[in-house]
Structures are given as structure tokens and as C-alpha cells.
Amino acid sequence: MKESVGKVPGLAVILVGTRKDSETYVRSKKKACEEVGIDSYGVNLPEDTTQDEVLNFVKKFNDDPAVHGILVQLPLPKHISEEAIVGSVCIEKDVDGFHPMNIGALAMQGRTPLFVSCTPKGCIELLVRTGVVIKGKHAVVIGRSNIVGTPAALLLQKQNATVTVVHSKTPNPAEVTRNADIVIAAVGVPELVRGDWLKPGAVVIDVGINPVEDLSTKKGYRLVGDVCYKEACQVASKITPVPGGVGPMTIAMLLSNTLESAKRAYGLMMAMLGATESAATVSF
Ligand code: NAD
Q1: Taking the CB of the first residue and of the last residue of the chain, which one, N or C, has fewer CB atoms within 10 A?
Q2: Calpha distance 140→204 (Å, rounded)
Q3: Is the shortest distance between the CB of 60 and ligand 1 below 6 Å?
Q4: How close is the Cα of 191 to the center of ligand 1, in Å?
Q5: How far does residue 263's CA lie from ligand 1's centre (Å)?
Q6: Cα(109)–Cα(33) distance, rounded to whole angstroms?
Q7: Which pTM was predicted?
Q8: Quick check: is 230 catalytic?
Q9: Which residues in the chain are classed under CATH 3.40.50.10860?
Q10: Cβ-count burial of 279 within 10 angstroms (0-12 exposed, 13-18 middle, 19+ buried)?
Q11: Looking at this predicted complex, what is its ipTM?
Q12: With a 6 A CB cut-off, is 145 part of the ligand 1 pocket?
């Protein structure tokens, strides 16, 4: 893109506050941008930034033609409405796919969102690229959050799976999960899913990233998933590790969405050069 049309994609990341996990995620996203040649425009704002000040930054990036994607790192401090901020990102730059218009389009038959949120998109990409057949299979998604569980279930449905959603009020989660050919766990409970929750040969995507105390490590903790990997890998035919599975895919999908957005912005120039292939293999 740089050589042909003299432009590169741009991603703006807005971070408010000093949460260590958010700072780490933002650093990884910026580093990934650098590696692939995407310009990043970050602002790190103090914890006491007002909602209006954050809205002004979103507006500034909405209006900046060099920015093709805007990401507001969640969670935001309690005095700022996430709904107001996420809803203020223009949908053409909503590379996180959190805008209600994009989530709404995902939920509707025959509608295609401009962007699909990165973590669930990465889950489907992992399945497709490893040759897992989704069509006609029974998929169980554990968790129903707006950013992972719910869009993951909608995406699996769009890929023609029969989908069951298990959540905190499901009385028999192990029994339901045992029927699944494909399991996506997005719960936030360390090692909730045990080996005996799985049908032999099931494919398991573990989204969870949970720090658990481990005094034998330098940091005093280690990261585990929502699935007990040691038990599950004895039963599953395929399983993603934590760390190193869904996390890096989420970042890859963010880069892919930013590239797609830049291609849309420079569509005519790109089309004239015939450089229109997609970075991700799955389209929804
Ligand atoms: P969330 O807290 O918003 O949602 C958790 C969901 O799990 C809820 O819908 C709840 O109903 C359900 N749940 C809670 N306890 C349950 C139980 N005992 N049985 C069944 N369902 C239960 O969390 P989230 O934002 O969806 O994140 C889930 C996990 O995924 C976390 O560990 C988070 O750190 C991780 N995460 C990873 C990535 C990544 O890039 N790998 C991205 C986002 C989130």
C-alpha cells in the first residue's frame, strides 16, 4: 500500500487511566502495528479525564483521514460511560466492532457488519484455518458478554453451526457442553471447563485469560485459560493454548480490520492497482 498508493493504514488507540493489564494490551497492539507497518496514533490520558475530553479525542480521530481505525481500550474509569464513548466512534472506523450498529448488523440475517469484533472473529479464523468444519456442527459458547460470547455465538450461527449458549445461570453447564463438537469458552473463571465436560474429539477454543497466583514465577502469577488444558488436551482433538492462542489472534484481527478499513478509504486507488485481497480468510 505504501509503495503503490503512498499511504499506510492508521490506528488510533485511546487509553484512559493506568490499569496494568490495559497498558500491556495497548503496548502489544502498538508493537504489532509497528511490525506490519501500520501507523499508530496513541493517547494515554490520566484517570481523571472527563467524558467530554475523551469524546473530543474520539471526534479528533473520527475527523482525521490518516486514521482508519479507532480503538478505545476498555474498561474505562467508572465516571465515563462506555456506551457513550463506544457509540461516538464513527462506524467506518470501529475496528473493534463494538458499535451497536455493527453488533446489530451481526445479529441480523442478511446483514453484514462493517467490522466484526476482533476476539470472536479470531476464534472463527482459527477454526477455519485449521480446517475445522463448522457447518452443521453443534457449537457451545460458554459466556454471553457483548464483546466475546454473544458475537462468537452469532458468528458461529452465520457459519451454519447449531449454537447453544451457556451462561452463569445455566443449571447444567457440563452436561450441555458435553454435547458440543466445538466449544468456545469465554467466561473469566480459571480452568472452569474440565476434561469430563468435553465430548471426545471436540474442538476447544479457550478465550479466557486469568492470572492465578504462582510464587514460583518472577511475577508471582501465571496465566491460565477458562479450560483446564492438562485435562482437556487428553479428550479434545484440537485445543488453543493460553497464553498464545486466542490472544495473538485478537491482535491479528485488529490489524486485519484496520487494513480492511484503509482499503475501503483508498478503495478506488487500490482497485485500480488490483490489490484488493482480504487479510482474513473468513468473510461474514
Ligand atoms: P465477562 O465477565 O464480560 O463475561 C463473562 C461471561 O461468562 C458472562 O456472560 C457470564 O454469564 C458467564 N459466566 C460467568 N460465570 C459463569 C459460569 N460459572 N458458568 C457459565 N458461564 C459463566 O467476560 P469477557 O469480557 O467475555 O471475558 C471472558 C474471558 O475472556 C476473560 O478471562 C477475559 O480476560 C478473556 N478475554 C480474552 C480476550 C483475548 O484476546 N484472548 C479478549 C477478551 C476477553
Answers
A1: C
A2: 10
A3: no
A4: 12
A5: 32
A6: 33
A7: 0.93
A8: no
A9: 2-103+247-273
A10: middle
A11: 0.98
A12: yes
Whole-angstrom CA distances from 138 to 141, 167, 183, 193 are 10, 17, 9, 17
Residue 256 has, within 13 A of its CA and on its CB side, a CA count of 23
Reading the chain (284 residues) residue by residue, the pLDDT tens digits are 888 889 999 999 999 999 998 999 999 999 999 999 999 998 999 999 999 999 999 999 999 999 999 999 999 999 999 999 999 999 999 999 999 999 999 999 999 999 999 999 999 999 999 999 999 999 999 999 999 999 999 999 999 999 999 999 999 999 999 999 999 999 999 999 999 999 999 999 999 999 999 999 999 999 999 999 999 999 999 999 999 999 999 999 999 999 999 999 998 666 777 665 556 667 66
Q: Which of 94, 96, 181, 206 is catalytic?
A: 96
User: What letter represents residue 262's amino acid?
Assistant: A
Q: Which cell numbers hold the place of 277?
A: 485481497
Ligand 1 centre distance from Cα of residue 187 (Å)? 3
CATH number, domain 132-244, options 2.60.40.1190, 3.40.50.720, 3.90.420.10, 3.30.530.20: 3.40.50.720
C-alpha cell at 234: 487428553
CATH fit for domain 2-103+247-273, picks 3.90.1140.10, 1.10.730.10, 3.40.50.10860, 3.30.2320.30: 3.40.50.10860
CA of 185 to the centre of ligand 1 (A): 8
